[in-house]
């Protein structure tokens, strides 16, 4: 079947999936006022694969390693530093070109890669074979997929087996010769309602008595027993917003209920091997944080760009405190890029698959998450209160008010009042809106909390090497 | 007339004022779906003055110094540390009791106090007399008022007299025997559309050639030539929000256009005395930052409280990193309170009027503004991604979904699932919503930017005393 | 006997005490090249009590509550906010007047106050009586004393009873009708070798099986079995240092060995009451941190003063980044003062004795400790590399070099080259010397580590009040 | 002549140079108690070039590009990313192997590279030729050299031409057919007194009327008119320090006086071309900051290692707050390494010479300088007050005290008391000594202040690209 078109993708979503939003069932996610935004954002991936510009096409499309047929680069697991760099650029380019993040194959293949690397370690050839077959299935049908990891967790001070009821972590409730039955719920699953496939991996290390929770598998989004409960996000631009030729982009979060869902064995990638649950969660986390770094780079460039533009429009770009703040913003952005470069340059190889340096990847995620709010503050500071109090487009178009606004809301004469108001609206969207507040939370919790990164940095840092260097300087032999 | 009731206050707003929102004129600010929220929030002040609890009443109501009639404490300029402390408690109590900030008399009297202290320095007895008369007018009619300071400013790299056109700062365009005519616009004026009176002061120090910009005056909100262009804020709770017995509270920002507005001389408090513009702006700023400290204390207690409650509901309150974060939050809150205490204990006296220590007041404002985003991050971190992805009340009430949500969204067994969802909704509102993003901007820019506080700290700090101490330690005589 | 003179104090130290430094026994601590610096620094307290300036004298000397005889204010436990404020000023003044910190009675009475407040809670009247008698003994003989708290602790991951040997915490090894025998070591005891009396309190909460470690007592510094092992500190100014009329001041740290030391019952203030060990350690810590705040205020003023003076001498005091850094320094200093003010204004009363607010006192200590290194960095940054590379006084006095240095090491013409070199030397001493590095460690660990303050802030903060406020906002009843 | 031995290097320093320390002339820098430490530290470079280990030798020695004779790799200007990485490793290895930083050729060739790249831009072939010849001279004679850049600067608020006298910046005072005469002083010149050659470059951008200050040249260290005034550093280990098989290493700072020094034209690399002074200062700064990053990596690994070792010895390595602090330390170290990797991967080419990315190199220097004090604080915090109060080796060796110390100063049983004391002494040296305080200042000011890095980050960041991205998002065309 090969590369699908955006229209084929849309069509594939009309498959009887069970989706709710605002407490109402959704007939068609491609036309629902909110969910269509996510549909079109995800469709960007299929648009990019058909672009005529060869530079873009070659970034997004590669030949199938055996058949030579064109397929999405996402379905080609990275084998070298160069592959990792291409993946980084691919994600960045998709944002720059489509104006949104066509979330789906990126996080989906983070999970695929985690499954494939773990399968190699588990010593059960059937898992490796199923993973390969599943990848082939994705390639052949050019499927959009989502990786679902986070369980609802109940009381977070307790392990899965200690909870009030056994369902706070997704688990196997039955198994037979054809497959398994799973029950549970995954939460914070971005773009889930417009995926073709759901790929489920465990959220954490499981212990021996938690073997039923050590389960990984794939199902189509319309499998019986699956319900998506969506968090409302934004819809089309309203009349109070400045109109724009650029379409609105956005992603919708979902909670996915698995109400005794059947999964055939050929789609089961872990089932009870609790001692490998850690590796799968850990590898997924590393890949996924690298994906996050990839899409955060343009996101924080936009952030910094709002500050530069607003500084100019306010006429303060030469004030020394503003320059100092722009230097902080630039340092934040460029440190993220430099960490990405360094993570790519020192990958860890799992068999043939290249994992970006877990240490540096986690440092990069922690870098952008731990300083993000400070950067938001800098942009708000430079931009002025106007980003939160500026009149709407309806005021701008009102005859009685237009003259006042034109007269009074100018800034630097280098830009017109309307340009300034447009930039104010963009900056409001970026740092002072419901979406920007949501993005703060996503930055903190997406791809795992900052404590999760700190744990991995602790595990991956050469602390013993530092110690032995210090002991040697003191003339003491190292201990272990 | 004495103390008005809330109903009298509402009635007084139906006075023909010219208010726009979403590009549409507003017939009645007390019934408009958005503006009525602000009306009712402001009405809280009138409710408080009539409360039966003597402790509250005595905090909000004082006898008129001459007539002994009850009047609002706001209209009694502070003369002692104790008065300042009562004012601090009054603002805090109004938030705790009404659930909102009945913004109006507080910032309004910040401006009244600035006018009165400046009048004493200007050597023109008519100004002092007008200020006294105006205060009497406020007392007698128990008026809600707003202090308007921030001009639109145009190119912020240029002074008022260097701009593309002369109207970027409000100014006197004509004067005659009856009064003056003013033109310009004030921006970021919170709650302006529901004030009875507008009190205008200059936004900065003016120079000799900018004397027309050195103007301070009062006008009623329905004076001819005045237009309010309101930034939409939130309206009543929608069906997707968890219902509550507590009413929605909120304030609406406005830009106020002064299109050749006439002001009679008895309401003019500065007109051309550019050399005193600095003192007025500076004194207003100090009072106003103290008011801000007063209302921020409960605001940040709520912030910290969301973190404590969510930590318990998530079952992580004993995790060491969570305790460390709660200590940071508590330190932030309690440092703010301690700075308020210290500011009260060392006031500066202007004649009979006590100004809270300008140095410590500015430090307190800078404290809460510069660390606020970091605190938001901590609350988001502790609360979990759920505050941004949780299903809505409509999902909760849907029969097909209710059971799933009840089953899967529980946390610590100390609380019910519904309680957890309510607390999640509250925390969303506090740190992850359009309103919380707006509050970040307000925290940065309200009452002047952080650079403005740094300038005042520089001016007020005993840097020379430190220096002389160091010179003495080095055996060097001080220079000046 | 009443107030002693400095000479009487010196004489009292020639009492056969067993002191070592650099591995050598010290004959006379008042003449040893290093220890005499500490002797003279401590002697400052006795100088101050005899000053003619009535303002100073009244600060340092109060009448005995019963006899009316003059005695040191340190021996008058604070009963009001005003007493606490006087104590704060007394310590600050002693530094300003003598150029050093006459450490001894301050920390000593921190321990006395802890013993007295704990005695009230223990329900054994003999302890309260002994404490009163001991205080009377101190008053009558005007003794310099030191509070010793920190045990050597061994493996800090283990409790006293779990260690390799039982002596890592000081303990009672025997008791008889006359008194007790104690064994152990106390460490980091500043100024111990020049104290008349040692007052020992437990370093932490003890458990039931650690009752032998719950011991508090006083002994004279020359009691048999006591050895002081001193850490060398600085001696008199050497020829390479710029000479000065101001004497060198400094304190020497000691480790104190208790090798089966006998303590008579009348000097035992706790012996086995493990359930009160926490209170004693905790109360001592609060008092002691308040003492630390008192002496840190002039210390950080000097720090900031070096930055102001060096900025002027380098001619950069108007550079915007320098002003921003001076604002940071001033904010650091003035926040410390404001916290001290607030701690004084809300004391906790233990019977008649006023303890400064434990919450705010701990916040104040954490404030100065957690930001101290950042402030050091700012002073180093403003001062320039010259503070660490400047030629010595011997170069300055060398005929061949003097002309070069005079010509080349000038700065702003407002000061002479020699003045600049003196200020450089002072700043070197303050932020770039062995002593300043030591002070960094003292700032971190003196009066307990920052984690200790965080624990007390956690315990003392109104976290539950915040929570209940947030629960109420969400319409939820509080739980406990 | 080729590669010299350490002995040949020592011999070459007995050349009549004029060196002062403590106001006394130094006969022989190779035997003076303080300067010999620097001599031996620098001699490490010559030791390394003769090591038998081929891996080390190949890192430090390369064949002459024309003759094939072995020469120091420092004298081979980097042409590729790989060359830059080798240089980074060479500096790191020299520290790891010799225990000190053999400062000299590294900073010296930073200046050589700056001269060579600038010569290419100046359009005067004689400069390029002289630079090549000089490099050949260095190669042939295997000379240790020092780059001297920082002028004494006088009033830093004024430009060179505005100062009280014209000598605050080094300048040409005369020129004739043979060469030029220069006058002035360079300051903070590390290791200058043991260099063979001094290479002088301008400290900043000069203007047209400051052409005499735009001068770069080389002279031998014993040239007439040159005087070194050295800041005393540390000498051999004293008896109070724990003995060690590892020699003491250290560098001595000098102020260099140029009292009408003659420089022949073949050693003049800039003379009046003020418009190129900026490029030379800027390029030197970039190279030099990269050198600094190279030597800081092992320095901060040692820092972190002290914390890890002390945590283990104190038995607190599993405490959660300690782990959090170790993560911070590791993040600091590894971010520095990652930035170095990224700087290497994106060099800027000046003709054939590769300059590490100026943006990332400056970010890396700012990273280590701006967080260094915070890291020192963490190490002090983890290590405990004992690093500043521990008894000396003389106490340890004293028979009366040894048993006490052995008994009481143990920590975790994994290490002996003596090991713990040695590690304490090492940590004291690293974070709590005169040397560590000096290193704080060096970290702030060495290779230019943090403001200098911020200026270069501002200049090198793609701020306009960010802006254009934001403008495009807002639908606005970019302006320039």
Short description:
Chain A has 480 residues and is an alpha+beta fold.
Report the portion of residues of chain A in β strands. 5-15%
* Poorly predicted runs of chain A: none
Strand order of the largest sheet of chain A: 2-1-10-11-7-6
Q: Note the main sheet of chain A.
A: 6 strands, mixed
Task: Tell me the number of strands of chain A.
Answer: 14
The oligomeric state is homotetramer
Please state the CA-atom Rg of chain A, rounded to the nearest Å.
24 Å
What class do helices, strands and sheet pairing of chain A give? alpha+beta
- Would you tell me the overall average pLDDT of chain A? 96
The helical percent of chain A reads 40-55%
Total helical segments of chain A: 16
The rough form of chain A would be described as globular
- Give me the strand/helix succession of chain A: HEEHHEEHHHEEEEEEEEHHEEHHHHHHHH
Which pair of chains has the greatest number of interface residues, and how are they split between the two chains?
A-B, 84 and 84 residues
Please report the distance between the alpha carbons of the first and last residues of chain A. 57 Å
How would you portray this structure in words?
Four copies of one chain form a homotetramer. The first copy, chain A, is an alpha+beta fold. Helices cover 50% and strands 14% of the residues of chain A. Chain A has helices spanning 6-12, 35-48, 54-60, 81-98, 105-121, 125-141, 277-314, 320-345, 358-383, 386-389, 393-397, 399-408, 417-431, 434-445, 450-460, 463-473, and strands at 19-21, 24-25, 61-63, 70-72, 145-148, 171-175, 179-190, 197-200, 215-220, 226-230, 253-264, 268-271, 348-350, 353-355. The first copy, chain A, has a six-stranded mixed sheet, with no helix packed on it. Chain A has a four-stranded mixed sheet with strand order 5-8-9-12. The first copy, chain A, starts with 5 loop residues before the first helix and ends in a 7-residue tail after the last helix. The mean pLDDT of chain A is 96. Chains A and B meet through strand 7, strand 11, helix 9, helix 10 and helix 11 of A and strand 7, strand 11, helix 9, helix 10 and helix 11 of B.
């Amino acid at each position: 079947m090969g590369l699908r078109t955006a229209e084929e993708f849309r069509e594939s979503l009309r498959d009887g999936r069970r989706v709710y939003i605002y407490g109402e069932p959704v007939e068609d996610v491609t036309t629902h006022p909110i969910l269509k935004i996510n549909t079109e954002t995800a469709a960007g991936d299929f648009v990019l694969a058909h672009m005529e510009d060869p530079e873009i096409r070659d970034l997004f499309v590669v030949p199938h390693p055996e058949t030579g047929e064109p397929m999405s680069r996402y379905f080609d697991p990275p084998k070298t530093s160069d592959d990792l760099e291409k993946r980084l650029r691919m994600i960045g380019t998709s944002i720059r070109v489509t104006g949104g993040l066509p979330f789906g194959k990126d996080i989906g293949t983070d999970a695929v890669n985690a499954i494939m690397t773990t399968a190699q370690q588990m010593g059960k050839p059937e898992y490796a074979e199923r993973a390969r077959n599943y990848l082939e299935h994705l390639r052949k049908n050019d499927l959009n997929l989502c990786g679902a990891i986070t369980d609802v967790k109940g009381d977070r001070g307790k392990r899965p087996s200690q909870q009030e009821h056994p369902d706070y972590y997704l688990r196997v409730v039955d198994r037979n010769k054809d497959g398994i039955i799973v029950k549970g719920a995954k939460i914070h699953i971005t773009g889930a309602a417009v995926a073709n496939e759901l790929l489920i991996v465990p959220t954490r290390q499981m212990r021996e008595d938690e073997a039923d929770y050590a389960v990984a598998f794939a199902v189509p989004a319309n499998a019986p027993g699956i319900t998506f409960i969506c968090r409302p996000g934004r819809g089309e631009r309203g009349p109070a917003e400045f109109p724009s030729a650029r379409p609105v982009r956005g992603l919708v979060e979902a909670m996915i209920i698995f109400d005794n869902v059947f999964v055939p064995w050929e789609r089961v990638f872990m089932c009870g091997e609790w001692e490998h649950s850690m590796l799968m969660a850990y590898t997924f986390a590393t890949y996924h944080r690298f994906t996050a770094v990839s899409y955060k780079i343009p996101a924080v460039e936009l952030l910094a760009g709002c500050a530069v533009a607003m500084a100019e429009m306010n006429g303060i770009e030469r004030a020394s405190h503003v320059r100092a703040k722009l230097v902080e913003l630039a340092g934040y952005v460029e440190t993220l890029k430099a960490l990405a470069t360094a993570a790519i340059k020192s990958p860890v190889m799992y068999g043939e698959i290249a994992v970006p340096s877990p240490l540096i990847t986690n440092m990069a995620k922690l870098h952008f998450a731990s300083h993000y709010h400070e950067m938001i503050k800098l942009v708000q500071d430079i931009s002025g209160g106007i980003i939160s109090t500026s009149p709407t487009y309806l005021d701008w178009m009102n005859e009685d008010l237009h003259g006042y606004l034109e007269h009074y809301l100018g800034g630097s004469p280098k830009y017109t009042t309307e340009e300034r108001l447009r930039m104010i609206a963009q900056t409001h969207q970026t740092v002072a809106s419901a979406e920007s507040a949501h993005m703060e939370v996503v930055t903190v919790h997406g791809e795992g909390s900052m404590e999760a990164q700190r744990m991995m940095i602790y595990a991956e840092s050469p602390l013993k090497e530092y110690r032995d260097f210090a002991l040697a300087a003191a003339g003491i032999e190292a201990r272990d």
